[in-house]
Amino acid sequence: MQIIKKIAVFFVLFLLVFSCAISDQSKSYKNGVVVSAHYLASEVGNEILQKGGNAFDAAVAVQFALAVVYPRAGNIAGGGFALIRTSKGEYNSLDFREVAPRAAFEQMYCDREGNVNSDWSQKGHLAVGVPGTVDGMVKLHEKYGSMKWEALLVPAIKLARNGVVLSELEANKLNDYRDQISAQNKNKSNNPYVRERPFREGDTLSNLALARSLLAIKTKGRNGFYEGETANLIVSEMEKYGGIINAKDLQDYQAIWRKPLIGEYREHKIVSMPPPSSGGIALLQLLKGAEMHKMNEWSFGSFEHIHLMVELERRVYADRATWLGDPDFYPIPVDRLVDGEYLENRFATIEMDEKSNSQDVKAGSVAVIESFETTHFSIADQEGNAVAITTTLNGNYGSKVVVEGGGFFLNNEMDDFSCKPGVPNQFGLVGGEANAIKPKKRMLSSMTPTIVEKNGTLFMVLGSPGGSTIITSVFQNIINRIDFEMNPQQSVDAPRVHSQWLPDEVYAESKALSPEVKGKLEEVGHVIKIQSKIGMMANIFVSESGAYIGIADTERHADSRVAGY
Ligand code: DON
């Protein structure tokens, strides 16, 4: 048995080392680095750094560039979270999550029989939360930026005006969503995202309406979006097509500075996003469990490694569903949830040779998503400032609604609320009172921008898209580096596994489980589902000499790129 185990572990490590060897692109940069899901956005950020901008200037420019070059997740009408570390070692976090419109109410996505209609929460005008991105970028720049605001919008405006040459990935994605986008934009001509013939790699996609919207933001800052022409365009969309966001909703939107969550993991400082993201709490809980059950004593890919992760995740996602939501609306017991004693008790029931059962609650029938509809980017600069931003429209191209005359997609973030207790959302996540819909409330998120420090110096900047799998992807990248002592490239390339309490299943990338480990997991009762991809990292690691090593997850998303100098 021991020999079979050794062969199985060898098999996983061989696959890992082999795949790293063919994709090894790690290169270090002394001065600054940007890692994002699109090469043009990474280049924009790198240019800002080289012109003397700091990481926060570059982040603003990258956020707006992504709205043009990566419209399925990059956005001006979505939201996100920024985790910040200044060169002085101070931390901060910015919540620019969308909020529910004032006219929203708890049962708004239920039909007469009380059943949730997920089409209403996921598609079209009713699915849209009041966007937070523009106010977020303005606040980030006001507090930490060093360059002129206007200069940070110029690259995105140019890209929108001159057009972006489509990669194969982006052309295919637009084609895949063509019918859904057409369905939500019936009466519109000039929709740049729908053409008569399918998009092809190499086509140029320009968007003059988006260039104008960006120009308004460049000249008027927040008022260029939440007031005036662009705001009117959004409100008229809503009035014409059954949405509920009004002018006051837009005027009232405010991004919020929040105290980041700080924890420890095996002599590393872990800094992550507090509620309304569930990411930071869940990550600290998982790490506590990994420390308690001595994750570092198991080998990567072994039965014990996978079983332990799944058992931890089952408990952590159950807490998420019960306790987490917008802290301004629901008293979240944050201290208790990350308290050592509480977690010791919670994780003490884990048996290493037995699967525990998720509670008998109606399980979600939705499989874990394999496409990347959110986007994460990480930036570090010459002075040692670092920023991790995860931003999203929620689904691919959000609600699929393109604002007529504005040229941009609106989010469908309302689906991140728990529309009805126990009924899963598009990620199979369930929730209850803590995440129920209320006017002006923020919907719970899994986005987990995170920064890790070792001995007082920057160690990792990381994050990922992937809905509910974001948290576990971030977790695995940290333990890959710290417990399994992988190098930066390996820790990103390593195959990933995910579980989330409900559905009571284990999702694994095809290379993650050797036949022997898969067999043993099934023997103790785990239900394994193979997924083509879990998460898409955009990480920065700091070498011992202090150089930045950017790692884009190109194995999982070919357009991702590192740019640095
Ligand atoms: O905030 C959240 O947790 C979700 N709206 C994230 C969506 C997402 O990651 C989709 N992408 N893959």
Automatic annotation (TrEMBL):
<feature type="binding site">
    <location>
        <begin position="392"/>
        <end position="394"/>
    </location>
    <ligand>
        <name>L-glutamate</name>
    </ligand>
</feature>
<feature type="binding site">
    <location>
        <position position="467"/>
    </location>
    <ligand>
        <name>L-glutamate</name>
    </ligand>
</feature>
<dbReference type="Pfam" id="PF01019">
    <property type="entry name" value="G_glu_transpept"/>
</dbReference>
<comment type="subunit">
    <text>This enzyme consists of two polypeptide chains, which are synthesized in precursor form from a single polypeptide.</text>
</comment>
<feature type="active site" description="Nucleophile">
    <location>
        <position position="374"/>
    </location>
</feature>
<feature type="binding site">
    <location>
        <begin position="445"/>
        <end position="446"/>
    </location>
    <ligand>
        <name>L-glutamate</name>
    </ligand>
</feature>
<keyword id="KW-0865">Zymogen</keyword>
<dbReference type="InterPro" id="IPR043137">
    <property type="entry name" value="GGT_ssub_C"/>
</dbReference>
<dbReference type="InterPro" id="IPR029055">
    <property type="entry name" value="Ntn_hydrolases_N"/>
</dbReference>
<keyword id="KW-0012">Acyltransferase</keyword>
<keyword id="KW-0378">Hydrolase</keyword>
<dbReference type="GO" id="GO:0103068">
    <property type="term" value="F:leukotriene C4 gamma-glutamyl transferase activity"/>
</dbReference>
<comment type="similarity">
    <text>Belongs to the gamma-glutamyltransferase family.</text>
</comment>
<dbReference type="GO" id="GO:0006750">
    <property type="term" value="P:glutathione biosynthetic process"/>
</dbReference>
<keyword id="KW-0317">Glutathione biosynthesis</keyword>
<dbReference type="InterPro" id="IPR055262">
    <property type="entry name" value="GGT_CS"/>
</dbReference>
<feature type="binding site">
    <location>
        <position position="97"/>
    </location>
    <ligand>
        <name>L-glutamate</name>
    </ligand>
</feature>
<dbReference type="InterPro" id="IPR043138">
    <property type="entry name" value="GGT_lsub"/>
</dbReference>
<feature type="binding site">
    <location>
        <position position="416"/>
    </location>
    <ligand>
        <name>L-glutamate</name>
    </ligand>
</feature>
<dbReference type="InterPro" id="IPR051792">
    <property type="entry name" value="GGT_bact"/>
</dbReference>
<comment type="pathway">
    <text>Sulfur metabolism; glutathione metabolism.</text>
</comment>
<dbReference type="GO" id="GO:0006751">
    <property type="term" value="P:glutathione catabolic process"/>
</dbReference>
<keyword id="KW-0808">Transferase</keyword>
<protein>
    <recommendedName>
        <fullName>Glutathione hydrolase proenzyme</fullName>
        <ecNumber>2.3.2.2</ecNumber>
        <ecNumber>3.4.19.13</ecNumber>
    </recommendedName>
</protein>
<dbReference type="InterPro" id="IPR000101">
    <property type="entry name" value="GGT_peptidase"/>
</dbReference>
<dbReference type="GO" id="GO:0036374">
    <property type="term" value="F:glutathione hydrolase activity"/>
</dbReference>
